[in-house]
Amino acid sequence: MADYRPYRVGILDFSDGRDFLQKPLEGVCREFRDSLRHKLESAGFEVHTGSEVIWQNDVAVREAKSLAAKDVDAVVFNYSVWAWPQYSRVAAQFLPQPIVMFSNVNPRYPGLVGMLAASGSLDQVGIKFSKTFGDISDSATFETLASQIRGIGAARRLRGETYCLFGGRSLGIDTTVIDPALWMKQFGIDVDHVDQFEVTRRAEIEIAKNERVKQAFEYLKKHVRKIHWTKPDAKFVLTEELLQKQLGMYYAMWDICSEFKYDFCGIKGQREMTEHYATCDVAEAFLNDPYHPTGEAKRPIVCSTEADGDAALTMEILSNIKHTPALFADVRHYHSELGVWDLCNSGEHATYFATGTFDPIANLAKTEFRPEGFYFPAGGASVYHIAAPGKVTLARCTRHDGEYVMTALHGEFMDYGEKENERVAAITQDNWPHAFAKFDCSPETFVSNFNANHIHAVYGDVIPELQQFCGAVDMKFKVLS
């Protein structure tokens, strides 16, 4: 499940190896270390500092091992004075990498000199690092440092996660299929498989119990803006029975992920579910949401439709960095007259995107359940809404000749008002959720460089974090903005 706990950051201080300088310089190191720690804590990071300023090799080993035992997501090497470079190299081998190196502005002491010399020592042996120099009270300097921590921390948190693949390749989409060995080697992620039959089996048990399904059913009837019920023999059908099946699938998938400790997942859906049972849209949307379909708060579980593993990977990275749900969508159409892309895919959008907040009542008040269309003859509800406006970062992990590449760009979700939103949505699909996005690049640049049909997004600018993440996992990074 998505881990929204604060990033756990370690700080180690480095100093001069001459014993007659160690004591006088210790106070200087502590002073600058404390200002760094307070700044990080005020921004929501969980901070762990070393107990000693490192001035000998044995101290470097002891402090690094102690910090590693605290399971930190990233480590800042702090340089306030001249520090012998060997200590950084000794300590780094025990700690998460890349190392985040920082030197505050302190002209009375050569802390910057120490950081630059230490970076050379790390570089000689292939230890990855990033460097920041500046006044920690300066917002731009701090945000540069914080983005490095978040990006490296996101890579660290992937290690040990497990991805659950419900089903297999959908509709012949090769870019959804992953190599479990490559995932383990590059990201430290294990991949497990569960047949879709287990989802339907458990769903039927949930429906028969009529406890959680009933509670969710009544909550949604009360809070969803409109449910477009149809007769059972309608061409495109949405009945109470079908919605209950979809809610049963949600609880089935939630229980499977909880029982087997799966961190994120993808489900095939097409064709078995969409032609013979019910669509997975309700289950997918609420797994990605920060609340159950009863409104009760929970941790989101990234879930990608069409069993798209690289979609789920991208979403998990974005979600871990931003601590919000991540969007899943097809790049459906470019409206040249508006200069806007229609990002749209069945019911896969978390209802979170209706307002961009964690408030289920506010989001559901802008959400409708509309009958599925001709693609999905089994029927059920599509979770229709328009994504709230705001600046976004869009991204996607793909593979070129067996090597991962992350493509990213800036964009903005647009809101044209209810009437115009409905008109534009109906041009492509009037029953699916939409995000109307302006991209920070030309349509030609995007199409020629983006090699996938699915794209993902979070609100805000996380390009710096994605760049740090890619450096940490040896992934090529391409920015289209």
What can be said about this structure in brief?
This protein is an alpha/beta fold and 481 residues long.
Protein described:
With 481 residues, the chain is α/β, with parallel strands linked by helices. It has two domains: 8-158, Rossmann fold (3-Layer(aba) Sandwich), CATH 3.40.50.10940; 162-479, L-fucose/L-arabinose isomerase, C-terminal (L-fucose Isomerase, Chain A, domain 3, Alpha-Beta Barrel), CATH 3.20.14. It contains 16 helices and 19 strands. The protein has helices spanning 19-42, 57-68, 85-92, 111-124, 139-158, 180-187, 196-209, 212-223, 240-259, 272-276, 281-288, 309-322, 360-364, 418-428, 443-449, 463-473, and strands at residues 8-14, 46-49, 74-79, 99-103, 129-133, 162-166, 190-194, 226-227, 264-267, 303-305, 327-335, 340-344, 368-371, 381-384, 390-400, 403-414, 434-439, 454-459, 476-479. The strands form four sheets. It has a six-stranded antiparallel beta barrel. Strands 2-1-3-4-5 form a five-stranded parallel β-sheet, with helices on both faces. Helix 5 crosses helix 12 (309-322).
CATH topology of the largest domain: L-fucose Isomerase, Chain A, domain 3
Number of helices: 16
The CATH superfamily of the largest domain is identified as L-fucose/L-arabinose isomerase, C-terminal
Q: What CATH first level of the largest domain would be assigned?
A: Alpha Beta
Whole-number average pLDDT?
95
Which percent band covers the strand fraction?
Answer: 15-25%
Q: Helix/strand-derived class?
A: alpha/beta
